[in-house]
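Thread: quick sanity check before group meeting

JM: Hey all, I'm pulling together slides for Thursday and realized we never actually wrote out the predicted structure for the chain we discussed last week. Dropping the sequence here so it's in one place. If anyone has concerns about the input, flag it before I start.
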Amino acid sequence: MHTPIALLLGLGVILTALSLLGTLACRFALSPVPLYLLAGLALGDGGLAPAPEAREFVDTGASIGVILLLFVLGLDFTVREFTAGLRRHRASAAVDLVLNSAPGAVAGWLLGLDAAGILALSGATYVSSTGIIARLLGDLHRLGNRETPAVLSVLVVEDFAMAAYLPLLAVAASGGAWWQALLAVLVATAAVATAITASARWGRHVSRILTHPDPELVLLRVLGITLVVAALAEIIHVSAAVGAFLLGLALTGTAAERARAVLSPLRDLFAAVFFLALGLSVDPDDVLPMLPAATALALAGAATKLAVGWYAAARDGAGRRGRLRAGTALIARGEFSIVIVGLAGTSDQRLGALVATYVMILAVCGPVLTRFAPTLAERGGALVRSTRKDPPPT
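JM (edit): ok, ran it. Output follows.
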C-alpha cells in the first residue's frame, strides 16, 4: 500500500505545530482555540505556508471533530435536564433570535443585498459556534457552573433552529416557491421532534447496546454508532452535531462514563483539526477589504450575545459574574455561519468576504473575552468596593 509522503509530512508538521500552540496556550492559562484558528488562517489559500496536501484529511477530520465535541458534551447531561432547560429558556431563545438576527438583516439591507442575501446574513449573525463554545466550557472548567445549562440551552435551540432555517434558506436561494420552503421546514421540525422523543424513550436500550467490558469494543461501538446517527441526521437535513448531541443525551450512568473515557482523546485530536479547518476556510485576501464593516458588525454581535447570555443566566439565578461568563461564552461565531454563506450561493462576493471576516474576528476574540472578561470585571468590582470603604480624607 502506497502512502503519500507529502500527506504524511504535511500532517506531521501541522499536528506538531498545533501541539506547540497548545503548549503556549497552557503556559498562559488560555484556551488554544484562537491560536488554532490563526494557524488555519496562516496555512490556508493565500496564507503564509499553504498545505494543500493535507486539506482533504483536515476537512474530513473537522466534520468528525464537531460531531465528537457535541457527543461528549451531551454525555454530561440527561434528556430530562435538557428538555427542562429548553422549556425554561424559550424566552431566552426568542430574545436571542430577535437581537442577533437584526444586525445581519440591517447590514444586508445597507449593503443592498437581495432577499436571500439578507436572510443569509441575518442567520450568520444569529447563530453561535457550538463547537468552539463546547470546547471553551471544557477548557475553562465551567461545565459545572450554574450558568452553563443556560448557555447550552441557547446553543441547542440555535442548532435546532438551523434545522428549519437551512432548508428555508436553500429554497429561497434557489428561487423556490413558498410551499416548498414551508414543506422543508415542516419536515425538518418533525425530524427533530422524533429524534428527541426517541432519545428519551429508548435511551436505556442504547446504553445497554454500547456497554462492554473491553475498552476497544466500546470505542468502536460508540464511535461507529455516533457517526451513523450523525449521517442520518444530515440526510434528514438536521445538523450532524445535533444528532450526535442527542445520542450523547441518551447515554447515562456507566455507559456515559466509559464512552467519555475512550472518546476524549479522539475528541481532542479532531477538535483541534476542526478549529484548524475553520481557519483554513477563510482566505486572508478577503479579510482586509471587509475589515471595517466586519469589525462594526462584530461589535454589534458581541454586544447582543452578551445581552442574551446575561438574560438567560439571570433566569437560572446566576449572579453577575455568572451572567457575564454566559454572555461572553456565546460571542464566538463559527461553522454554521460559514455553511450559511456557502448554501446561499449568492452572486454578491461581498457577502462571503464579510461573513468570513466577521467569523474570524469573533472566533478569535470571543474565546479571549470568555477567558478574561469575568476576571477583569471581578477585579474592577473589588476596586470599586475598596474605594467606597476608604474613609474620606481629613
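AS: nice. The longest helix spans residues 349-389. The chain has 17 helices and no strands.
JM: adding both to the slides.
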